Amino acid sequence: MSEELITLANLRPFAGSKHREKRVGRGPGSGHGKTSCRGQKGQRARSGGGVPPWFEGGQMPLIRRLPKRGFKNPFRVEYAVVNVRDLARRFSAGEVVDVEALKRVGLVKGRGVRVKLLGDGEIDFALTVRVHAVSKSAKEKIEKAGGRVEIIED
User: Fold this and answer.
1) Which residues in 3-23 are b (16+ Cβ under 10 Å) and which e?
2) What is d(CA 49, CA 65) in angstroms, rounded to the nearest whole number?
3) pLDDT class for 2, splitting at 50, 70, 90?
4) Is 106 exposed, middle or buried (0-12, 13-18, 19+ CB in 10 A)?
5) What residues contact residue 134 under an 8 Å CB cut-off, 6+ apart?
6) pTM of the shown model
7) Between these two residues, 136 and 4, which has the higher pLDDT value?
8) Distance CA 127, CA 85 (A)
9) pLDDT per residue as tens digits for the range 13-42
10) Are strands 128-131 and 96-97 parallel, antiparallel or unpaired?
11) Any alpha helices (H) in 6-120, and if so which ranges?
């Protein structure tokens, strides 16, 4: 038996994996005539009939049996987090680091994001950082290195 190299040009299903289509409503000789395998009357016999996959036969659905938990604050403000370590790795001395610069180097993704600077890591050169929020330790590290932190008001 020779191993044939499979390419897009000679792809075909394995032998026995494909079945002939069941042709319903093609007369009594076919075995699938008249009611087309739907039986007599009833919801499933009608066109468009049947129930959705989540229907539980009229009993109280699972989603309604489970208790509601917690609270989702609609006014929550989420921040993309950037650490001092990340700034030290991706920027050089004297640069201005704002949201656009952070997006450009891949530290922040998406539109309309708010950025918070955290103090994980060390930095030994001056940067001007413009972000929406900053932790106390991050601000101290940037200023100790001779840089400046500016808070953006949206």
Assistant:
1) eeeeeeeeeeeeeeeeeeeee
2) 26
3) low
4) exposed
5) 116, 117, 149, 151
6) 0.58
7) 136
8) 13
9) 999 999 999 999 999 999 999 999 999 999
10) parallel
11) 62-65, 84-90, 99-104
Cα separation of 151 and 43, whole Å? 64
Q: Please tell me whether residue 98 adopts helix, strand or coil conformation.
A: coil
Across 92-101, average pLDDT: 94
Burial of 86 (0-12, 13-18, 19+ CB in 10 A): buried
Confidence check: pLDDT of 103 > 70: yes
DSSP lists the bridge partners of residue 148 as 128
Q: Are 79 and 107 spatial neighbours (Cβ–Cβ below 8 Å)?
A: no
